[in-house]
Write a structure and sequence with these properties.
CATH architecture of the largest domain: 3-Layer(aba) Sandwich
Radius of gyration: 20 Å
CATH topology of the largest domain: Isopropylmalate Dehydrogenase
Order of helices and strands: EHEHHEHEHEEEHEHEHEHEEHHH
Distance between the termini: 20 Å
Number of domains: 2
Strand order of the largest sheet: 2-1-3-12-11-4-5-10-8-9
Shape: globular
Bound molecules: 3-isopropylmalic acid, manganese (II) ion
Number of helices: 12
Helix content: 40-55%
CATH superfamily of the largest domain: Isopropylmalate Dehydrogenase
Largest sheet: 10 strands, mixed
Structural class: alpha/beta
CATH class of the largest domain: Alpha Beta
Strand content: 15-25%
Length: 364
């Protein structure tokens, strides 16, 4: 079997974490006899510099015909203040829309041995195990009308949702809850926003089809507070695009580093897999980024994007082994521990996978 992947390294630390993730993905696929063919394309700031567009036609065409797409990160301060069509982020948003990846799945789980590293008391952090289902192709990010008139001092964004848009993401969130602890927390602002009133109505209808799942509604402000106070009570968080963007960074802080979080963006066609973190321009080129979010996104690519749960589970287990052995990137380095770089961490994970692959080959 051959996997045809499109790889979009992007900006900042994107290329470093992408290299790390692809090294690990190949090491996980080799013992399974899976060939991995990758083609790289520019997106974001890198694409703006090379072609004048943040999402060149050739990049988009390649993504649309791939088995799955892996993306590092986009964002480059050199384009701050530029109009929307010349922003790196516009490339990513255009890609999400064109791929139709409406469901952004972002798991956040306390990592054994790292629970002390975050801002929470260890006993509060320890039980954290949630997944954010973020609607990704609608809401404030894409709503029309939108406008910016700096001279007139007026700007407009719009938060629209349709029944169909809410229903399809809610359905996936409930199915996920059925395989987890059976709780969906739908996050909205229904005390203020009409969109949220519709959101609630549709989510309640979907809930009726899933009687084994308990549904609760929570306002987004109160949810942000509860996530810090009692993170372990949450299971599946279901929410609109911008709320999900904000809450998933909060979840990153709760597990100790945004660098740990992975994501899958799913629709009907090829999925898009990217770490939750951004391009972190100040860290770029120094080999200090934490590649775990990118590596676990590669695992999600195999499992959720290509139907290959076995090499995906092998990657997760190998990351855990390397952490158990005490390797830490700089975001988790404590006194007395010399941190390893992004590339060294990835090579250690790949080495674990290769050693296991060899052991299996010897048995065969
Ligand atoms: C994310 C990022 C993106 C978003 C940016 C880069 C457009 O913050 O994936 O969370 O806001 O969705
Ligand atoms: Mn974000």
């Amino acid at each position: 079997m051959t996997l045809r992947l499109v790889v979009l390294p992007g900006d900042g630390i994107g290329p470093e974490v992408t290299r790390a993730a692809m090294e690990v993905l190949r090491a996980a696929c080799a013992p399974e006899g899976i060939d991995v063919e990758t083609t790289e394309h520019p997106i974001g700031g890198a694409a703006l510099r090379a072609t004048g567009s943040p999402l060149p036609d050739a990049t988009l065409a390649a993504c649309l015909s791939a088995d799955a797409v892996f993306l590092g990160a986009v964002g480059d301060p050199a384009f701050d203040g530029e109009p929307r069509e010349r922003k790196p982020e516009t490339g990513l948003l255009g890609l999400r829309k064109a791929l139709g990846v409406f469901a952004n799945v972002r798991p956040a789980k306390a990592v054994k041995g790292l629970a002390n590293a975050g801002p929470l008391k260890p006993e509060i952090a320890a039980g954290l195990d949630l997944v954010v289902f973020r609607e990704l192709t609608g809401g404030l990010y894409f709503g029309e009308p939108r406008s910016l008139d700096l001279a007139a001092g007026r700007a407009v964004n719009t938060l629209p949702y349709t029944r169909e848009e809410v229903e399809r993401i809610a359905e996936l969130a409930f199915r996920a809850a059925e395989g987890r602890r059976g709780l969906v927390t739908s996050v909205d602002k229904a005390n203020v926003l009409e969109t949220s009133v519709l959101w609630r109505r549709v989510v309640e209808e979907v809930a009726k089809r899933h009687p084994a799942v308990r549904l609760e509604h929570q306002y987004v402000d109160s949810c942000a507070m509860a996530l810090v106070l009692t993170p372990s009570r949450f299971d599946v968080l279901l929410t609109e695009n911008l709320f999900g963007d904000i809450l998933s960074d909060l979840a990153g802080a709760l597990v100790g580093s945004l660098g740990l979080l992975a994501s899958a963006s799913l629709g009907k066609g090829p999925g898009l897999f990217e770490p939750v973190h951004g391009s972190a321009p100040t860290l770029a080129g120094k080999d200090v980024a934490n590649p775990i979010g990118a590596i676990l996104s590669a695992a999600m690519l195999l499992c959720d994007g290509c139907g290959l749960p076995r090499p995906a589970a092998a990657i997760e287990a190998a990351v855990e082994k390397v952490l158990d052995a005490g390797l830490r990137t700089v975001d988790f380095a404590t006194e007395g521990i010399t941190p390893v770089g992004c590339s060294a961490f990835a090579t250690a994970v790949a080495a674990v996978l290769e050693a296991e692959g060899n052991a299996v080959a010897e048995l065969a």
